[in-house]
What does this fold into?
Amino acid sequence: MGRDLIAITEYCIKYDIEPSFINSLEESGIIILTDINQERFIHIEQLPEMDRYIHFHYDLQINIEGIDAIRHLLDKVSSMQDEIRQLKKQLAIGS
It folds into this structure.
């Protein structure tokens, strides 16, 4: 298989998680899976987020809805941090 995809079955075995967890993340729109020849795959670029979601769910006992809310808030914080950086640059240029 291509280097940019990993089979869900392999991923679940490696990280000792349930495939239903990954399916729930997809159903909630948190991740995107790819179907090829009746097998499901996750994109490699989503792996850092998956590690975070696994930690939230299995270590902190946060449900899918909570993960989605946390993801939304973290995205918002990141966006605001970018905006602050841009404003600081504008202030530095104008000084």
Observations:
- DSSP finds four helices and three strands in the chain.
- The first strand starts at residue 5 and ends at 7.
